Amino acid sequence: MSDAWLHIVGIGEDGLDGLVPATRAVVEAAEVIIGGDRHHELSDVVQAERVAWPSPFDALIDVLLGYKGRRVVVLATGDPLWFSVGARIGRSIPSDQIVYHPQLSAFQLASARMGWSMADLETLTVHGRPVEQMIAFIQPDARLLILTTGAETPGQIATFLTDRGFGRSKMTVLANMGGVDEARFDGVAEDWVHEVPAFNTLAVECIAAPDAALLPRVPGLADELFVSDGTMTKREVRAVTLAKLMPMRGALLWDIGTGCGSVAVEWMRGARYARAVGIEPRADRRAMAAENALALGAPGLRLIDGEAPAALDGLDAPDAVFIGGGISEEVFDAAWAALRPLGRLVANAVTIESEQVMLSLHAKHGGELCKLQIARAEAVGRLSGWKPAMTVTQWSLVKR
Predict the structure, then answer these.
(1) pLDDT above 80 (res 204)
(2) CA–CA separation, 249 and 207 (whole Å)
(3) Fewer beta carbons below 10 Å: N end or C end of the chain?
(4) CATH number for region 6-104
(5) Paired sense of beta strands 368-372 and 392-398, if any
(6) Residue 100 phi/psi, 5° resolution?
(7) Domain 107-205 belongs to what topology?
(8) pLDDT tens-digit profile of 110-124?
(9) Is the pLDDT of residue 319 over 90?
(10) Would you say 164 and 141 are in contact if contact means Cβ atoms under 8 Å apart?
């Protein structure tokens, strides 16, 4: 690490006293220290040029590079590589120029305070991000540790839990962990009234009522959970579609003809940090898709007003493409050309005309064809009978 000029140091509420001697020596030898107000206060005995986080924060890399050649320390809270600034810096500056000095993270401290095994819980952050993204993790008996975005966040999460039948969930807010002002606030979601410090970590033990909404992260959410005008990829077909699209961590989906967004939302729920772009020309359907994304824990869904293939220009290359709003050779060619290697493309058709296009494309490109026929039991007078849904022809293939 002889070429390293940048040190990223994790610091806790106990300030310099909590650092190991070698890391403390790095901070004390710094010529430039960059961090937030709280970080500077925790290290104020060190004489160095002090630099605040830039605004906008995206300017941070340019600011850092401007100090190259000097002894630079960035102070971060806890572990700099766990939902913290170190990861952002590491994506832009070569790793051989950086030395990381981790401290106990808020997650580790909270886990110790709660007596929870970290192997048996989910660690989340909503700090500077939409709080709604935690909704996808509300499951019976789940334990969640959440880095919040402010004093109001626990109350917002308490509402999410209560609205979904998890009002008896236990909630604990932990603030200033490791410092002299450490504080703890305990309660249940449906009765949450605490005023808490702005900088806090939230622990949630999810407890489901008998009528709680069951929202698994595997595909196939109930149709009635989505706001729609009736035109949507139905539950069973959606489950098969998502299985072939194969949601993966951080992967990007193009949902062409997104409608109410059911496929895109389930894609984003299906893997951590999965992303989706929905292309939909109708404003009313884009509004429904946006509402569903918020309600079901996929607030990052990006919606585009337009029609393929023109609306695809300039988008990041996808890892998967779903064509659910009518397939044409032009749309397929544009999507297939943009699809990354090992990308998955799935198209569904219910009309004879779309099926004919699909069969022609299959003859040229191969892949897998199948027909999905679903029937549901419904009342027929005093008895019951099977009511079939429209048959769906599905074509799927992987780009190799």
Answers:
(1) yes
(2) 27
(3) C
(4) 3.40.1010.10
(5) antiparallel
(6) -100, 140
(7) 3.30.950
(8) 999 999 999 999 999
(9) yes
(10) no
